[in-house]
C-alpha cells in the first residue's frame, strides 16, 4: 500500500523528445531548399511560356506579311485577266511590289499555255521551276486556289526560296498564273524584331527538318527553351523553330544569403513585377488595338457582305460591303429586328419561315434568296450561316456571309438560252439530214392513196353502167386510202413537233408513247441503211416526269448514231434495239443497242465533251446536248460495250408520282 507522501517515480526520458526539433529543423532546411528550386522551376516555366507566346507572335507576323503579298498578287491578277496593261505600266506594278516587300525575289506571269508573258527580279534557272514548284502549279490550276511550293535552294551560301502560284481565272476559265518567289532569309530579317533575335535563335525548317533560313543575332541556342510552330501556308510544310540563348536558372550559391536577399528585395521585386505587368498590359492593349484596326481594315475592304445577329435575330454587326449590297447605311441596320427593310415583299413568307428556324437553333447553313435594295432593285444573293460561339463555348448568335450572285445568275440565264439554241439547231440539223428521205417516204402513202381512190372511182364507174355496186371493195379501198393518209400525216406531225421551238415543259408521259411518237422517223432512217429495228418496251412501264420533245430528241440522236455505227458491218447483223425496264431507286431505264464498231477507250474519255466528234462533218454537240437534256431531268446518260459487239447507251428518268399519263 502506497503512502500519500511517497515521491513519484522519475519519468524515463526517451529519444522521441528530440524528434520534433529535428523535424522542425529539417522542415526548415527543406523549405529553404524548396523555395529556390521552386523559384527556379517557375522562372523556367515563365521563360518557356514567354518563348511560346513570342514564337506565336513572330509566326503571325510572317504569315501576315505573306498574306499582304498574296493580296497584292490577287489584285494584280484581277487586273491582268480583265485587260493586259502596257509593259511599262506592268513593270511599274512589279517594281512597287518589290518595294513593298523586300523578301520578294521574282515575279513571273505565265499564260494559259505555260509561256512567260512578263517577269521581274532574279532570273529563272535554265532547268526552270523545281519539281515541287511544278507540282504546286498543277494543284493550283486544278483547285483554282493559290498554292505554295516546298522550300528549295538552301545551301551554305544560298538562302532558301519558296514559290507562290496564283491561278488567273476569269468567268470560270483558266487564263494563266502569277508565280512569286520569296527569300525566306529576307523574310526573317525584315519581320523579326531585333530584341527577339538577340534572345533567341530562329530557324525555318522544311518537312525534313532541314534549315532553309536562320537568324541568330545573339548566338546559337542552348536547347533549353525551344518551341516549334508550323506556318499555315497552303501546299507547304514550313516550321518556325525558336531556341533561346538563355540557360537554365541556377540555384543561389548561398541559400541563407539568397533567402535574406529575397526577403529584403521582395518589395522592390514586387514593384518591378507590377511595373512590368503594367507595361506589358499597355503593350498588349496597343498591340490589340493595332490588330483590331488591321482586322477592321480587312473587313472594310472585303467584297463579301458580313452580318452578325444575336439569338433574338437582332443585327449586331454589318460591314460596308453588306451596306452597299442592300443600299442602307449601317445606322439603319444595327439593332434592327425582323422584318428587315431589305426583305423583298414576294419572299416575305420565306424569310419569316427561315427566321423561325434561326430562333429555334436550326439555321440553314447555305441558301439562295433575294434582297431588295433601298431603291427597289432586287439582288440575288448566296447566304452562308454559321453559329457564333464565345470564349466559354456558349452560342451567342449567328454570323452570315453574303455573296452577290447577280453576275452568276445572269451567266446561268445566258447559258440556258444558248443551250436552247443549240438544242434547236441540233433538231434542225437532224431534220436536214433526213429531209431527202422524207420525200421518198411520203411518196409511198401518197401513191397508195392515189391508187385506192382511182380504184374507188372505177367501182363507181361500173355502177353507172347498170352493174351492181361492190360496196365491200369500195369500203376497203377508202379504208386503205384513209390509213395511208394518216400515215403521211403522222410523219409530217412528228417532224413539225420535233423541230418547232418551245420552252421546256415537264409533264407525266409514258415511255411507250414517246417511242411510238418517233418510231416513224427511226424506221425511215433504218430502212435507208438496211437496219432492222426491234422495240422491246413493255406497255406497263411506270410513267415518267419529263419533257417529251427533249426525250424524243435524245432517242432520235442515239438511234441515228447507232445506225451510222453499223454502216461498215454485214447487213444481216445490222440490228437496232430499243429496250426499257424499271430500274433502281424509282427510275425507268431506256437503252439503245447497236452491233457496230464500238467505242475505243481514247474516244470514250471525251465522248460527251462539247465539239468533239469522230465524224468528219460532225459538230460534236449531239451527245453533249443529250447528256444535258437527261441531267435536266435529274437522270444520267451512260454507255457500255455490247457483249455481242457494238455499244449500249442507257439513260434513266425519274418515275412520276402521278398515276395518269398526260400526252400533248
Automatic annotation (TrEMBL):
EC number(s) per entry: 2.7.13.3
Top-level taxonomic group: Bacteria
Identification of the protein by name: histidine kinase
SMART domains: HATPase_c, HisKA, PAC, PAS
Keyword entries, A-Z: ATP-binding, Kinase, Membrane, Nucleotide-binding, Phosphoprotein, Transferase, Transmembrane, Transmembrane helix, Two-component regulatory system
Enzyme class: transferase
PAC domain mapped to chain residues: 365-417
Domain PAS intervals: 290-362
GO MF assignments: ATP binding; phosphorelay sensor kinase activity
